[in-house]
Structures are given as C-alpha cells and as structure tokens.
Please model this.
Amino acid sequence: MPLIVDGVAQNFSLHRGWPDENREAVLREAGPRIRGLAAGGTRRIDGAMMDLMPKLEVIANFGVGYDRVDAAEAARRGIIVTNTPDVLTEEVADLAVGLLLATVRQLPQVDRYLRAGKWLEKEYPLTATLRERTVGILGLGRIGKAIATRLEAFGLGIVYYGRRQQEDVPYRFYPSLLDMAKDVDVLMIVIPGGDETKRLVNAEVLRALGPNGILVNVARGTVVDEGALIEALRTKTILSAGLDVFEDEPRVPQELIDMEHVVLLPHVGSASVHTRNAMGQLVVDNLVAWFSGKGPLTPVAETPWTGRTA
Ligand code: 8YV
Model:
C-alpha cells in the first residue's frame, strides 16, 4: 500500500522486497542490514527467511491474522511480531453478516437473474431463510463477538466453540465442535488459521451441520477441509456456503466456481479504503514505535515482549 510505503520511507531506509521476483536479490544484498519488516502477501516468513536478516528486531504484519509469520520461531530469536487487531473488527463483522445474508437469500444469484432478463419471464424461486436459525460461532474472539452482537439484533440464537469457555459472554459454550455442529444450522468460522486449527471443519463436522446447514468462512481457508466441503456441497450434505477465504489463495477450486448455489468472495473481509488505511497506518506506527524506543503497539501473543526497547 502507498500509505505503508510512504510511511516507512519517511521514517527509515526502505528496501523493496516486492514484487516476489525481487525478494531474493534484495534479501541477499540488504538482508544483513534489515532491522524491521513490514509483512504482507502470501509468502511465509519462516526461520530460513529470518536467517537472511540476522539483525531483524521486528516484523509488523499487515492483518490481524499472522499465520504467514512463524511467530514461535520469531519469539525464539527474540524478534517482536505485531499484527493489526481492533481496527478491522467491525468491518470484518459487517462483511461476515453480509455474506451470511447473501448466502441464505442468494443475493448474488438474484442479482444475476435480474440482469439476465429472467424476471420478465417469471419470478425468482423462493429461497431459504435466516429466520429461526441458530448460529454456531467457531472462534469467539473480537471479530466473533462483533458478529454475535449483530446477529443478536437479527433475533438469532448464538452459541460458540473455542479453546475455552468465556465467563463474560451470554452465549452457550460447546466444548466439542462436533456437538455444536449437530445443534446449529449456521457455522460461522472466525477462528485464526495456522497448524492448530488446520482442517478443523472436516467431513464429519459438515455431516453434523446437516442438509439445512450454511457454512460461512471469513477466517482462513486452512480451517476447512476444502475437498470435504466441495463434496458436502455437491451431495447436498449441507445447503450452501459463503466463503471469503480459500486454502490456496488466490486460486479457488473450479468445482466451487462451477457451483451456482455458493457465494464466493476474493478475501475482502477488511477490504474497504477506510479500514485498509487504518491497518496500514498501524503497521507503520508499530515500526515507528519500536524504533523510537516505545515498544510495539500491538504485539501478538507469542511475542516475548517484556517492556524491553530497541
Ligand atoms: C487481510 C486478513 O486482508 O487481517 C487479516 O487477517 O485476513 C485481512 O484483513 C490480509 O491479512 C491481507 O494480507
């Protein structure tokens, strides 16, 4: 983003590690001098890449999800990792609710119907409904709670599954994802990606969600077994899915693209000018704060931040 490039260039010596073809050459030449990294894109930032930057002190990740960064490895090396929480919470929650509505009431399909002139022939077939549904939230973090608040206003039942029960929320907690999937007819995925949650939503969970079930994923494609999802949609094991994220972005399986009854978005959860600017500014602000000795503004959980300054 120009905002990040300008913000970094104004405060530091900027080395451009993009486009991808340039990265290796830049790292070979400037790697030994690089002390801070602004990280976006799909390339994983692992120990091998950190090896090329022995003086690296801080990785400022663009996004609240930081599964592209090996944060445990960074912590082992004493490297600070920051992300962009809070500034995107409401935006992603808005999108998640929009995607749920679009999926249940088939909004993109209805729009295509009108544009194709089919309304002149006959009315669009009646759709499924959001009424009387119970939504199971997979991952009741900041974004999950913002989604829950919205869906409460819609008059829907809300329950959740996560690592642990939270005392201060009014929603029922399920210690088992499978048990929750049996009891709900919307599964809303907002849990972070990474190894811990890889393919948590598998064929069994989808079977439990059942033939009226709607899956919405605004988190990471890796949380769902995409092959099992395609099969469940093909065999009508579940009703439909609204997906903003995929296993191998930006590549989306042709089987999904060919399905008329799913809604597919190109990972746009936080993608408004307003919110992306706020996220970009937070990337810059984290770098500036660190190198001016104030410490990171939004360090991730794994980061060994103890108040030490640069
Ligand atoms: C960003 C996201 O689009 O914050 C996240 O975790 O998935 C999105 O807001 C993405 O990180 C940009 O690379």
Remarks:
- The two ends are 26 Å apart (CA to CA).
- DSSP finds twelve helices and ten strands in the chain.
- The chain has a mean pLDDT of 96.
